[in-house]
Amino acid sequence: MQDAEDALERASRAASGFPKEERLKFSEVIYDLIAALQSDVWKPIYDEYPDLAPEYEGFEPPTICSELTWEEVELPPELTEDDVDEILFSLLRSHWQKVALVLANTRDTCYIEGLSSDYEIFAARLRWLSDKDKIEGIGDLRMWRHSEVRLKD
Asked: Which pLDDT value is given to residue 55?
């Protein structure tokens, strides 16, 4: 079972080079399989034999962190769309980063600049930028710890 999970992780990394439409389809299947392994296979084993469970892993399947879309966002007065883009593009790199990491870094940037740092606003903008093909995203960007983003090549 561990070999299967490792193979799925390797497949997910390999898919990062696929064209966006194929990557999205493939990564959705991979994430579903990984979640099923973790919740349907590993969790019952670890529930019955807790001494076998790694201490550092959670067994919750990936969950959606936010459903907010950019069209639904109401920006606070001190924050403009350009501010949001400037912050996000300053944090994005050419290599893949977890959405959760980018969002955590927005908090620090906003704190330094004295701006609002609502994660959901920045997450909605990342999804919008990915949907508009201005950045690249892999996985379901609503699942912050289970998706990644990067600058376009």
From this structure: 67
Cβ burial, residue 48 (10 Å; 0-12/13-18/19+): exposed
Alpha-carbon radius of gyration of the chain: 17
CA distances from 3 to 9, 39, 74, 145 (A): 10, 16, 46, 22
Res 126: pLDDT: 98
DSSP assigned state of 42: I
Average pLDDT for 51-66: 72
Identify the three-state secondary structure at position 69.
coil
Contacts of 132 (CB under 8 A, 6+ apart): none
Helix or strand holding residue 135 (H, E): strand 135-138
Confidence of residue 88 (pLDDT cuts 50, 70, 90): very high
Containing H/E element for 149? strand 148-151
The pTM of the whole model exceeds 0.85 = no
What is the CB neighbour count within 10 angstroms for residue 151? 13
Six-digit token string for 139:
């996985």
CA distance 89 to 123: 13
